[in-house]
């Protein structure tokens, strides 16, 4: 068997770039890959996609006894790849002798075609993504060890279904753009989670309370309504700025590419809201300063403040749900999170029905209303 494999390996499709080579060898119903790499951390190859998302990744690194820890991962768009439930790839003795320059060499085989839809088949048109790092995973002997971002990645097309005598196919280098790896101290998925949680609070909870107080509780609260409204909405503004900045700071492709339509819309709405939040806060301050207790109608700046506020709220609520679905686009649990957030929104809307029909809106016009002195 081994001899057979070795003879086969004389014919192979090979791609080299920088200081890493991939050699693909079809062997019966299997396709075997060999990686030679000068990168001393981990080396990974993904099959079936030119991005991490949707890619069947096999990662390998040298363990403490100079063997290789090999793990099948499922590529996620916004997350570190997760351990794949289907551990189909298995280590085999090296197909191709380790070159002088290589720090890590290993060979593995996996089925060329797969029975279930759960894995990408190796086809003539398969796309590949190769990622390499000079930093070893935290625990080299554990297949569930965490590991940092790649130092480089390469995307290429390769026909691994026919043995081609050492033909180098087109290789496209695609180094990560954006900000450098923030190291493993705060993984990107956690940043997104913080962004999401803070935005849920800032746009699904807080503004409803702020508007509720302004619209229905002026009479009950007296002048405190304005202080409460100002504090809550100021908090919404601050959280929005911090939360968007956080994501922008750790923006790092390809983990955060807005190449999908939904991702693009989410970012555009988010930035629009971010800018308009400042306008809205300014309008609030102006309206308060120009407040005249004897006024007979609501001036345009007040009305603009109301309508801009409502528009921002609708946009942001929509964006929160877009964000939830983006975040969970690679996983199967968005339904549950959507349900919880939908319930929060439902409670807020019920409170508004109660306010509108039971408490009634308080609008400061003429002498009937409680004057606001600030
Ligand atoms: C290192 O990897 C090899 C396989 O390449 C394995 O046989 C060996 O047990 C591993 N060593 C440790 C300490 O896990």
TrEMBL record:
SMART domains: B561. The chain crosses the membrane at residues 192-214, 226-251, 271-291, 312-329, 335-354. PROSITE patterns: CYTOCHROME_B561. It comes from Boothiomyces macroporosus. This is Cytochrome b561 domain-containing protein. Residues 1-17 form the signal peptide. It is found in: Membrane. Pfam families: Cytochrom_B561. InterPro entries: Cyt_b561/ferric_Rdtase_TM (IPR006593), Cyt_c_oxase-like_su1_sf (IPR036927). The lineage of its organism: Eukaryota, Fungi, Fungi incertae sedis, Chytridiomycota, Chytridiomycota incertae sedis. Residues 152-361 form the Cytochrome b561 domain. One of its GO terms (cellular component) is mitochondrion. Keywords: Electron transport, Membrane, Signal, Transmembrane, Transmembrane helix, Transport.
């Amino acid at each position: 068997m081994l001899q057979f494999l070795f003879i086969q390996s004389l014919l192979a499709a090979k791609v080299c770039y920088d200081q890493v080579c991939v050699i693909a060898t079809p062997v019966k119903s299997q396709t075997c890959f060999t990686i030679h790499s000068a990168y001393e951390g981990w080396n990974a190859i993904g099959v079936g996609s030119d991005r991490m998302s949707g890619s069947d990744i096999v990662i390998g690194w040298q363990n403490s006894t100079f063997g290789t820890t090999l793990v099948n991962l499922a590529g996620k768009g916004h997350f570190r790849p997760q351990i794949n439930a289907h551990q189909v790839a298995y280590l085999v003795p090296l197909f191709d002798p380790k070159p002088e320059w290589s720090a890590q060499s290993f060979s593995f085989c996996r089925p060329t075609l797969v029975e279930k839809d759960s894995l990408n088949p190796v086809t003539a048109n398969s796309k590949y993504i190769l990622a390499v790092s000079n930093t070893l995973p935290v625990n080299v002997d554990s297949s569930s060890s965490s590991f940092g971002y790649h130092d480089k990645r390469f995307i290429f097309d390769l026909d691994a279904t026919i043995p081609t005598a050492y033909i180098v196919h087109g290789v496209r280098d695609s180094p990560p753009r954006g900000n450098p790896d923030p190291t493993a101290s705060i993984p990107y998925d956690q940043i997104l989670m913080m962004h999401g949680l803070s935005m849920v609070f800032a746009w699904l909870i807080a503004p409803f309370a702020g508007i509720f107080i302004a619209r229905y509780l002026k009479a009950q609260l007296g002048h405190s309504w304005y202080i409460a409204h100002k504090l809550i909405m100021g908090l919404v503004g601050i959280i929005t700025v911090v939360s968007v900045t956080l994501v922008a700071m750790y923006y790092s492709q390809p983990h955060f590419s807005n190449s999908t339509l939904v991702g693009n819309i989410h970012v555009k709405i988010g930035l629009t809201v971010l800018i308009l939040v400042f306008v809205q806060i300014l309008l609030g301050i102006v309206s308060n300063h120009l407040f005249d207790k004897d006024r007979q109608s609501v001036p345009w700046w007040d009305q603009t403040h109301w309508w801009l506020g409502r528009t921002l709220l609708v946009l942001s609520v929509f964006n929160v749900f877009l964000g939830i679905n983006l975040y969970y686009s690679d996983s199967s649990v968005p339904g549950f999170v959507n349900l919880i957030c939908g319930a929060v929104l439902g409670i807020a809307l019920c409170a508004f029905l109660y306010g509108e029909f039971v408490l009634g809106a308080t609008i400061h016009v003429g002498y009937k209303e409680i004057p606001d002195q600030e």
